[in-house]
Structure formats: structure tokens, C-alpha cells
Please model this.
Amino acid sequence: MKKLLMGNEAIAYGALEAGVQVVTGYPGTPSSEIFTTLAGMAGERGFHAEWSVNEKVALEVAAGAAYAGARAMVTMKQVGLNVAADPLMTLAYIGVKGGLVLVVADDPGPHSSQNEQDTRKFAQFAKLPVLDPSTPQEAKDMTRAAFDISESLGLPVIIRPTTRTCHVCQDVEVDEKQMERPKPGGFQKDPGWVIFPSLAIKRHRWLNQQQDEMQKIFENSPFNKIHPGSRRSGIVTTGVAYNYVLEVIEQMQLDIPVLKIGTSYPLPVHSTLQFLDGIDRVLVIEEQEPVLEDQLIKMIWQHRRPLVLRGKYNRLVPREGELDVDKVKRAVAAFFEIDLPCKEEKKLPPLPVRPPVLCAGCPHRASFYAFKQAARGTDAVFTGDIGCYTLGNMAPLNAVDTCLCMGASITLGTGLQLVEPERRVVAFLGDSTFFHTGIPGLINAVHNGARLTVVVLDNRTTAMTGHQSHPGLTRNATGQRVEPLEIARLAEACGAGLVQVVDPLAYDEAVQAAREALEFQGVSVLVMRRECIALVKGQNPSRRIDREKCLDCGVCLEELGCPALFKGEEGPVIGTACTGCDLCKQICPAEAIVEGGEVQ
Model:
């Protein structure tokens, strides 16, 4: 039957059809819906699904299941693969027994990431096969096939969708029936599971030999296709760029051969050479890094083919950002020396300037503001982390001075404090990030005698990626009730000398707690706890300005940056976005912000 599915949902259905038995992951755009779709089916279908505390843990749990013969899948975004790199590199040597599939979603653009790294490069680095889907249907089919490939090779297989493939929708042919899988045979003790150096050298030879086996499998893969054409110039492409190429050659009415590679590493050499037999010039079109292009250059040189190859190295195809039809059309036109008609320039009105801001009523705004007040008059440094609270760096809060990667707020702050021991450092990170990679940094800071304040912005969810669970909550990914871990007690167990829990919207108490934390001679931890406004919106009426009391001093407008507040003709105005959090009411020197609005 056909079902309208987003690419990420299609991947989930592919895993279901393949009989997946264990699914793990860590949320991150554009990958999150893969896991949430599977988590929603896990109870009914009888497989295990868990949000893990980070990608390394997720991969190791999935690998353990695969060691015991189960089919396992792990999901993450591209930067998450860096966190999982340590087990991945050795897992390639050890291998797996049951099928193990990593779905790593890349974010060219990037829309919601710290960088644009190309997972296909990581696959090459780890010497693991990678599949590059171009549509939701293909993403589903590749996922199902990846488990078979993994078990055939005894290796993990990577599927690398990019943002458009993840989030576009298509009618996908699915089989609602889950593949019946035999009960896993269980873990069998064997020295081959223990990676001593003497084993590593043997397995490295085996892994290199497996490169040939991968190529043999990919030579006959249905995911590699040739579109015939009459010209002696052609295009090689992969992933979502394949769709752009098809659209462009249709628009330009070009009769050219196209080779679509769905198995982007390792390149199927013989079938690619057969395609190149009929052409003299080739254009390579792919998003991000020149992964296919590099392999083609090497192959052409090894096989002494007198071909002209063009792509990213001569800047016909952009190496940064997403591709689209217009970009591909310009590349194709340049390659075939076709003049494109000049488009009449339409002057569009300038887009309104809308800098990203924390939501109206977001408790993080109150946390940042409390620390700004507590540290007023000092040169304190505020180190930030990955999450929606990174927006604390925007004016007027200006409360995030650094942001590198998950968990780095504490460790970067520790490093800064080593160089400037008298300067106060405040490290902000979210509750999910604390569990992800914050705890080792906290332990390290305590053990090495650092002096800094760690602020855990505990909004009771993983907000930025869609409100996923984490170990501090009472429900897990499948909705089962679980015992929550208390962040404050964990911080005490890590050795923090001062630990407090405070409501950031209790303004005076929050500022006082921030002052005490800043004055502490050691590692202090302040857990600023209040639910994400998206979870509780609509519980309080909005506020209004009492014009007779308002001094038009600008404090509420100029210090908080709340999107519910804006300047009107007669002074500040509270708009309909107000959630009644009362932070502005508490800092108003004239007590001019009062109740009286409506529940939104």
C-alpha cells in the first residue's frame, strides 16, 4: 500500500519492514522524526526503542544488541557522529553479528547545526559502506536493504539522508507488516570481541579486504541507475542532487546520459567505468564535499581514461550550502556552454529583520537576566552550549560569549579560568545537554580544582529538537514511567561544593542564588528549573501596561528582549504573545505591569 510519508518516517518504515529489534538515538535536526516514528510503534510492534543520553552511548547500546544477533538501528545528526566516532572507528574492526544500521542525517546549509560536515567523508574514514537516498521511497528501500548488507559484510552500514530528503513528503510504497525475525541467537563468547592490538592488526587487514566485498555488492545495486542519452558528455550525481539534475535536463531539454549513484562509498568501479565508456566529458554534481568526484578522479587516473572531469574543484558546483535547481542549472549550463536567458530582475521588498529570539515566557531569559544582574559591574565570562538557550547571546541579553559543541560550556569555561583565575566564569547548559556530555566536564572541573559556576537550565525537556525525553524526566521515549535522575543530587555526587535549585521566574531569589554561586570559591552548580513555556503555555493570563503608572523608562523593552513587548506610540505595549510569566512585572521600577490580559 502507498502512504504519504516524510523521508524520516519512510526510514522508520524501512527499519520496521527489515524487522528491527533495537532502536537507539539522540535527537537532532534533521534526524529526530526517524526515532520518534519508531518509538511510537515500539510498544505495539514489540521492539526496544530508547533515547540515549548521547550518540556514543546510543551506538554502543545498538552495537551490543547487534553483537547478540539482533537487528539494531541508531539515529543521529551529522555532528552527533563526532560524539559516536570513538566506538564507530573500532566497531568497523570488530564487526557485528546482527545487522547494524546508522542513520546519520546531514544538514547542508546548515539550517540547525554548528557545521556542514559530510558524513560520507566519515564513512570513508571508518571504511564503512554508505547509502545516499534521493527520495523518501528510496530512503525506505535503502534502510531495508542496509540491514541485509550489514549482515552480509559483518559491518555497520551508514545511511546518509540530507535535510531535503529527511523532510520532504512522498507517497511511499510500504508494507505495514513487520518482517518476522528469528529470536537473536544471543551473545557468544569469543576472543574476536576483545580488541587487543594483536587483534586490531588482523582485523584491519580484514576490513581493507571488505572494501572489495562492498564494491562487489554495490556493482549490482538497484540504487545505482543510468539514464541514457545521446551526447558524449554526461553527469554523475547522487543523493537529493539527482532530483535537481533530472529537473534541470528536462527544463533545458538536454539529451544527456546521467549516472545516479546511490551507493556513494565505495564507488562501484566497473559499472561506473561502463557508463564512462560512452562519454568524453563528465560533470559531477553532489551536495557538500567532493566524495564521488574524488573517487572518480582516482578511478580515471588508475584506469588511464582520457576524460575531462568537472565539478567542485573548478568551482562549477558549490562546495558549501544546499544545492537547488537554480544552482544545478547554472552548473549544467556552464559545463555545456549554454547561455541562460537573463531573468528580468524583479525588485522585491526587503524582508523584515527578524533576529531569532527566545520565546515569550521562556524561563531561560529569566535565568540569563538574573546572572547578568548578579554579575553586574564585573567582567564575568558567560560560556554557552548547544540548545535553544544559545539564543541568550542575542541583544539585549548578550549572555553567551562562547558556543562550540555539546557539553563544551563547562570545559571551555574551565580552560578560560586556567588563564584568568581571578575572572568569574559562568557556564550555561541545558538539562538534556547536562546528561549528554556535561557531567564529565563537571567532574573534571571539580577534580582539577576549578573555580566556576555551572548553570543547568532545566526546562524539563529537550526543547530545541522537539521535546524528547531525557533521564531527568519521569517518562521515557515510549511513554513508560521511569524514575527520574535528580540533577542537583548528581551535581553533589560529582563533588560540586555548592548546589542550589531555584525557580528563575522567582526573580529576587534567582538573583540572590546567582550571587551566592558567583561568590563561591570552587565549583558551584545552580539548577534553574522551570518548564519550557511550550509545555505550559496558556495557563496564565497575559499582562498589560498601566499607562498612569508607566514611566516609559524602557527597562522592560531594553533589558529583556521579550518578543511580547514592543514600543507603541504612547510607550511600551504588551502584545498577544505574552504568557504571563511576570518577569517584566518583577523588574518594572514603577509597578506598571499588571494583570488583566486574556489567557492566550
